[in-house]
Amino acid sequence: MRRRWVGLDGYDVVGAVRAGRQVLRVRKNGWVVADCTSVAEVARHLDLADLCEVIELSARRRVMPSTGVGTSSHQR
Fold first, then answer.
1. Within 10 A of 33 (CB to CB), how many other CB atoms are there?
2. What does the alpha-carbon distance between residue 55 and residue 70 come to, in Å, rounded to a whole number?
3. Measured between alpha carbons, how far apart are the two ends of the chain, in Å?
4. pTM reported for the whole predicted model
5. Taking 60 as the threshold, does the pLDDT of residue 76 lie above it?
6. How far apart are CA 22 and CA 54, in angstroms?
7. What are the pLDDT digits (tens) for 18-54?
8. How many helices (H) and strands (E) are present in the chain, helices listed first?
9. Which of 35, 42, 55, 56 could form a disulfide bond with 23, CB atoms 3.0-4.6 angstroms apart?
């Protein structure tokens, strides 16, 4: 699962690999602003206190009732 943080004014931060090196990619409205090698570099572009981690929940599986199940006395 990919980690992502979003902030104000359309900013988001994601992990990426550039030239074989891990970086924190800062984007604004989908456009790359900078590839940062440290959190301190990210802080030069936006206020870290404004960032909120996006946690994607797994999709819920739909439970299908099995055939022939009758719990009501009217289904006999």
1. 16
2. 40
3. 48
4. 0.70
5. no
6. 20
7. 999 999 999 999 999 999 999 999 999 999 999 999 9
8. 1, 5
9. 35
